[in-house]
């Protein structure tokens, strides 16, 4: 197996000047290519913080994180922004689509930032919208789409840059059961057929049931790390 994420002894500490609070406390974590992993735990357990550290959205106070052998912990802010753009896809609970852009333009925007030429961008967008089943909604603005459709567009945007892996923070939290299962079907299929690595932060049992690996955090520490046979609907 190919290790793509190697987090060694990482901690995130708040209130360091008086009584320190460890949001993440000396965590070791290895993620292999093709994993479909759920980070779970009660509110305040540190799962979103861990996701943000892995994604370079926040910086660890202790330890190191390497992605495909590149150590991101000490990168400058500019280098880290560039690294995220080229290597990591993000799916957020709140969708984070740009409201003035169409669905197609939202997905294409990432590739424009990467400097990908128009012909290749158009081909990639068409393929992605076919994969998420929204070919007929490409020219709709986010306000014209349902929550489930917006989140599917967010998945397409996350995949547009051909990232090393996708980080999804509570991606089904705002969705009804049908929309959530549809979204999970799409991500599961992408994982199975294209070996795209997904890491979820979630409370949602529907996501947990689909995961191949479940990592449980309590008070910033990993208390269990288990492989399971996922329930595929």
Automatic annotation (TrEMBL):
<keyword id="KW-0547">Nucleotide-binding</keyword>
<dbReference type="GO" id="GO:0005524">
    <property type="term" value="F:ATP binding"/>
</dbReference>
<dbReference type="InterPro" id="IPR027417">
    <property type="entry name" value="P-loop_NTPase"/>
</dbReference>
<protein>
    <submittedName>
        <fullName>ABC transporter ATP-binding protein</fullName>
    </submittedName>
</protein>
<dbReference type="GO" id="GO:0022857">
    <property type="term" value="F:transmembrane transporter activity"/>
</dbReference>
<dbReference type="InterPro" id="IPR003439">
    <property type="entry name" value="ABC_transporter-like_ATP-bd"/>
</dbReference>
<comment type="similarity">
    <text>Belongs to the ABC transporter superfamily. Macrolide exporter (TC 3.A.1.122) family.</text>
</comment>
<keyword id="KW-0813">Transport</keyword>
<dbReference type="Pfam" id="PF00005">
    <property type="entry name" value="ABC_tran"/>
</dbReference>
<dbReference type="InterPro" id="IPR017911">
    <property type="entry name" value="MacB-like_ATP-bd"/>
</dbReference>
<dbReference type="InterPro" id="IPR003593">
    <property type="entry name" value="AAA+_ATPase"/>
</dbReference>
<dbReference type="InterPro" id="IPR017871">
    <property type="entry name" value="ABC_transporter-like_CS"/>
</dbReference>
<dbReference type="InterPro" id="IPR015854">
    <property type="entry name" value="ABC_transpr_LolD-like"/>
</dbReference>
<dbReference type="GO" id="GO:0016887">
    <property type="term" value="F:ATP hydrolysis activity"/>
</dbReference>
<keyword id="KW-0067">ATP-binding</keyword>
<feature type="domain" description="ABC transporter">
    <location>
        <begin position="5"/>
        <end position="231"/>
    </location>
</feature>
<dbReference type="GO" id="GO:0005886">
    <property type="term" value="C:plasma membrane"/>
</dbReference>
<dbReference type="GO" id="GO:0098796">
    <property type="term" value="C:membrane protein complex"/>
</dbReference>
């Amino acid at each position: 197996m190919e290790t793509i994420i190697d987090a060694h002894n990482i901690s995130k500490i708040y209130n360091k000047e008086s009584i320190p609070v460890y949001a993440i406390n000396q965590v070791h974590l290895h993620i292999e290519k093709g994993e479909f992993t759920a980070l779970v735990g009660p509110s305040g357990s540190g799962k979103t913080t861990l996701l943000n550290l892995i994604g370079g959205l926040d910086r660890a106070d202790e330890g190191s994180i390497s992605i495909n052998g590149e150590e991101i912990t000490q990168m400058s802010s500019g280098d880290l922004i560039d690294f995220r753009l080229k290597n990591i896809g993000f799916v957020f609970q709140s969708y984070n689509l740009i409201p003035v852009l169409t669905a197609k333009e939202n997905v294409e925007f990432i590739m424009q930032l990467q400097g990908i030429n128009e012909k290749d961008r158009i081909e990639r967008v068409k393929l992605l919208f076919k994969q998420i089943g929204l070919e007929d909604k490409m020219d709709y603005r986010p306000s014209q789409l349902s929550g489930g459709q917006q989140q599917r567009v967010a998945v397409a945007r996350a995949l547009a840059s051909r990232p090393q892996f996708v980080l999804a923070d509570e991606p089904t939290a705002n969705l009804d059961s049908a929309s959530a299962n549809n979204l999970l079907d799409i991500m599961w299929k992408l994982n199975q057929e294209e070996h795209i690595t997904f890491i979820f932060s979630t409370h949602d049992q529907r996501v947990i049931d689909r995961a191949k690996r479940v990592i449980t955090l309590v008070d910033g520490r990993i208390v269990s790390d288990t492989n399971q046979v996922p329930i595929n609907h």
